[in-house]
Protein 1
Amino acid sequence: MPTISNPPIVVGVDGSSVALAALRWATADAARHQVPLHLVYAIGVLGNFGSGIELGQFDFDTYWQGVRDALETARTVAVSESAPIAQLDISTELVDAPPIPVLRDRSKTARLLVIGTHGLGAINRRLLGSVSTALARHAACPVAVIPETSAPSDGPVAVGVDGSPSSVHAVEIAFDESAFRGVELIAVHTWSDFLRFSSRADMQEEGEELLSRSLAGYGEKYPAVRVRRIVVEDRPAERLLQVGEKAQLIVVGSHGRGGFAGMTLGSVGQAVLHAAEVPVIIARSAS
């Protein structure tokens, strides 16, 4: 895999309002971090129009011009959105191939992959589209999934912590995002006495120790980030969603302590991704 000294933030665009929300979020994040922004429009195949439409009836020239115009409009939006923050290196790419494999491939050399919550034609915010779901499960870098209704916020960044390797990655991302946004970080760890024989007091103490270990060292690296710690008996997804209601971003690992090698997305990440009304970053990696 090629090594890029300053990997870009890659955002999928398709001319929809959902993709526009993702583009605006990605632009601001790229500008804060001073990293390149790469806009990818993967149109896929036109498919079968049905027996009532002959292929010759379709105006390919008009279609392609519309796609090019949509990509140029996206670039114009990115230039405008980044201008108040920082000058941004913006590139565009138009690919005649299905979006999932294209974006999955681009994620191999990306800092972050940003996509909307669903594609055109989705009937419910809570029902993620196939592109969003597939990339959250299979991308080779962290994936940010942005709801269409997302708005700028001065709320905190929330992160789920369980001590797993995936959680370590989530904590790194959460501190970085909190620092660049200049907001509080809320670190959440939950525990349960299910199939455990320790007392609740002991499990609370174990949870506090685990959270302390998971956050160790970040105070020195990010001294300006104020951290609020929550250790509580609860279901992890439910508590993280509750805390995340007033957050501007939730960060969660791709799978937790119950995960296994090759697992694509754990139950907590999946629950948060499908129910959160704020941007969510799934801490994926190439490994």
Note: The CA atoms of residues 10 and 106 lie 7 Å apart.
Protein 2
Amino acid sequence: MTISPLTFVLGGARSGKSRFAESLVAASGLERHYLATGRAWDEEMRERIDQHRADRGPSWTTHEEPLDLAVRLAAIDGEGRAVLVDCLTLWITNLMMEERDMAAEFSALAAFLPKARARLVLVSNEVGLGIVPENRMARDFRDHAGRLHQMIAAEAAEVYFVAAGLPLKMKG
């Protein structure tokens, strides 16, 4: 199965989006790379990370990059590879916690995407479907995610929304 140069997979928490994205990469037959943006802030998160790694198995090469996503993507880019980035919303959280320049980080990622030689599958949580958050940080997070999602969706050849384990193709 051939996958698009850039595929974007959105969904809620525990929607099946990561499993769907992994299945796209696995079916491609390309060398599998998993770029994890999550940080283990506590034991529960460490256990989640360890379980995800075990579930993927040895056929994946895992890279961890909580902040410099465009730089790491460029470093692992290459023909014959598929790179799954999971997930963009954790990356946004990390950037916010480090008080990084969101516009600059998003621009760096957007500038890299059309140059990639690997097939890219980007995963993110859709957080804009609920009520307006009560605090500024949560509203900023939701707004950053919405802006980034629009940028990625505009560049992507295919966009999927996953709910209850069911992917809905929105573009492509």
Note: The mean pLDDT is 94.
Protein 3
Amino acid sequence: MQTHDYWLIAAFFTLVLVPAPWLGRYLYRAMEGERTWLTPLLGPLERLCYRAAGVDPEGEQTWKGYSLALLSLTAISLAALFAILVLQGQLPLNPLQLPGLEWHLALNTAVSFVTNTNWQAYSGEAQLSYFSQMLGLGVQNFVSPAVGLAVLVVFCRALARRCASGIGNFWVDMTRAVLYCLLPLSLVLALLLVWQGVPQSLTDYVQASTLQGAEQTIPLGPAASQIAIKQLGTNGGGFFGVNSAHPFENPTAWSNLLEVAAILLIPAALVFMFGHYVRDLRQSRAILACMLLLFVLGLGTVLVAEHQPNPAFAALAVEQQGSLEGKESRLGIAASALWAVTTTAASNGSVNAMHDSFSPLGGMVAMFNMMLGEIVFGGVGAGLYGMLLFVLVTVFLAGLMIGRTPEYLGKKLDAREVRLLVATLLVMPVGVLVLAALGVSLPGPAASISNPGPHGLSQILYAYTSGTGNNGSAFAGFGGGTLYHNLMIAFAMLLGRFGFILPVLAIAGSLAAKNRAVTDLNSFPTYGPLFVTLLTLVILMVGGLTFLPALALGPIAEHFAQLQRY
């Protein structure tokens, strides 16, 4: 690594961690309706939204009412986006007169963006109009992270309240998440990206002549606005087909730093928001320490793996400083490695390099980040409520070891909550192992794998891990745009989204109704080095025991085969 690589990593952690405490307190106040510095500007607009929708902002919902409202919005969003994509050819803002998508590709894309996955089995600049990008995908880039944030807020309230039947109002939480969090931050980032040269235009594509005399079409469009919210909302769907490896989507080293830091900006802040809800910032520091530990372990592994010479070239006596295959050559190995770990630690899925070309161990870290349920910071809201589920599992195991009824922040865990926790632990194995096994067992779907041997298995494992984990990145060699994979990955995305959200809301409803027991010296402390270590080990054990056999047949086998061959 060179000096500027260390500066990049230092700047990244600075941009992510320094604003986190302040932004976390701001988000707590905004989501609870307290006055913030944006209230004079956005307060009237918020009240107008409630009046227009006929929503009583003081009305509370039970967890079942909250779930029904969430599912209703999801169904409406899914139907609307599907219609936009299928009817694209008859809609305005379509300068290239692009036709509508095939129904199964449109369904896959609609599910993808509604579930905050942004899996892309299409090429944005070649298949989608400005209308589809802005009104279709752009709207869901705001709505889907707002849903995740709303569910997290419900979980926080459940742990903080005593004997409460209501857990909040979905429509109020959604409105505040968009108005006070996502909209102002994305506006600022979009302006910064335009300053760095990212296009933001409704003009037609430009026809240009190359130095060789050939004609070339240069795509434009309203890219900066969508790129800003895709990063901040941990969405990840690129305006252009190759995502942030495209020089228009990511033109400079500064845009690269801003975009990669934006992925973790809100997830890191939400950890501190949680501390304000439960009135104990020690809980925030413990969770943040666990996230950082897992993140640094993954980043260190990828940096070491990608800076190793490719054994194939070493056999030819070609001197190397690392493997540049598939990396963004403008930015270097470290920038590509940092982005790969960040985008898979969060449920973002945007890329500035091709993960299919990473070393076996580098690709394995990206895959394993997603297999953990993307709780290492994770998506907006989704990452932290996934981590809190692991916290509850850890508390349950600690209770078994010391012979006490498990409790977290004074809320005792009963059999019902434990059964729901177990249900969430089954989501990733079913979505990844079962669906990937079907894909490799059937002759037609298996033809989408472009590489033989262990790397081919890694391709399909990565695809279904990405779908179930609501990530959206892919090993580029996997041909996922078929009828079978469009439908099965769509199912995986729905399973990965609502297989967590519905149990989380049910657990929240159960915990909110309980009184908070008084914690004393005999209570198991859920902060400090001991708890951080135990939580980290539980996460690694659950992920390792579940997915190690599959990883051994894929990237681990490929790594040893590569060493043996050369």
Note: The chain is about 65% helix and 0% strand.
